[in-house]
Amino acid sequence: MLVASQLPKRTVALVLAGGRGTRLHQLTDNRAKPAVYFGGKFRIIDFALSNCINSGIRRVGVITQYCPHSLIRHLQRGWSFLRGEQNEFVDLMPAGQQMEEGLWYRGTADAVAQNKGILRSYEPEYILVLAGDHIYKMDYSMLLLDHVESKSLCTVACIEVPREDASGFGVMDVDENRKITRFLEKPADPPGMPDNPDKSLASMGIYVFNADYLYRLLDEDCGDNTSSHDFGKDIIPKIVGQGNAMAHYFSMSCVPSAQFVPPYWRDVGTIDSFWSANLDLTSNMPQLNIYDEDWPIWTYQEQEPPAKFVPDPHGMDGVISNTMVSGGCIVCGSKMSNSILFSKVRVQAFCNLDQVVVLPNCEIGQGSKLKKVVIDRGCRIPEGTIIGEDPELDAQRFYRSPNGVVLVTQEMFAKLYNFEHIPKVE
């Protein structure tokens, strides 16, 4: 009898982590989107990698391209605990221009194709392709079991979304047996599910392939001069046309935060969604449970002392509510609500922070008042700075999103105050 625990050992996971994430604007000027910080101490890629480890998949390749330094360093420091002598690894697969033409990765499918020789050396039966830039908890062993039991050559993980919101996704049209009959890229009129016409199935960018089948597809795609060499644009539509693709509902394998809580999956690809997903963690009952000891999120973290809260110079204590504060932080007599401080942040006296996400190694000057702000790593906020009260002034000085969230970076302050920018280490 086939059990889910057997399949991860016969599988290699490939995490596509080479994208920039342009909709995050200056937040990805110096780092790839999967390397962006999240949740007080993590990087976005930690969620896909933790899902692999918790699912029993311990052979993982991470494909990198855009600004890979901070991502590679994070993986080397935080993900080197696997046992090579037991054939466990997190292998880095940077764009090495392996083709004769000396090309960088031309698309997601080409990124896998250029590493096909390495893949073959692992001798997997199944290949799990993952996006490295989403926040979710999923048991991939259940996805693999569904793939094998359905005798599918390709299985696409899909999440149920309201039909009116599905136009921004790649949507799968399925029959009553979950066989994918059509793949529609951002359709104006998304098809509903057979048993729930008010919901549509959006692709999560997660695919399981029989290894030999994937190799054959990649060979054919490589020789197609009309292809953009992308899974979503070329490979998956071709498989659907051949009748070889099945849909796997996220609800079948998600790791829920609590009973009756809907499946959690977020693409934090915009400043608004990044800010919102971070702040959701500060609520009384967040939709994402990062305190789950049965499904931990692994990461690299420096050894920092505990966070400390001290009175202001007048001896008055601050007021803190619905706020997450990481190690190495010192907060002096300030008011903070619905905010997240990453490691080694200093908040000087008399500050007021509301709905603020502060990335590591920042200092907030005395008397500053900040609301709906994302502060990039290493920023020094001058004394008395006010952000979040005057939309026009904020837009002139920084980046202000359509939803009114203000992004602040070192480079913006260097330009604003005409001082020399000190290069930051990511």
Automatic annotation (TrEMBL):
Annotated positions for site Could play a key role in the communication between the regulatory and the substrate sites: Q65, W104
Pathway: Glycan biosynthesis; glycogen biosynthesis
UniProt keyword annotations, A-Z: ATP-binding, Carbohydrate metabolism, Glycogen biosynthesis, Glycogen metabolism, Nucleotide-binding, Nucleotidyltransferase, Transferase
Enzyme class at the top of the EC tree: transferase
Residue ranges occupied by any Nucleotidyl transferase domain in the UniProt entry: 13-283
UniProt cross-references to SUPFAM superfamilies, sorted A to Z: Nucleotide-diphospho-sugar transferases (SSF53448), Trimeric LpxA-like enzymes (SSF51161)
GO biological process per UniProt: glycogen biosynthetic process
Family the UniProt entry places it in: Belongs to the bacterial/plant glucose-1-phosphate adenylyltransferase family.
Function comment: Involved in the biosynthesis of ADP-glucose, a building block required for the elongation reactions to produce glycogen. Catalyzes the reaction between ATP and alpha-D-glucose 1-phosphate (G1P) to produce pyrophosphate and ADP-Glc.
Protein name (Swiss-Prot/TrEMBL): Glucose-1-phosphate adenylyltransferase
Organism of provenance: Oxalobacter formigenes OXCC13
Gene name linked to the record: glgC
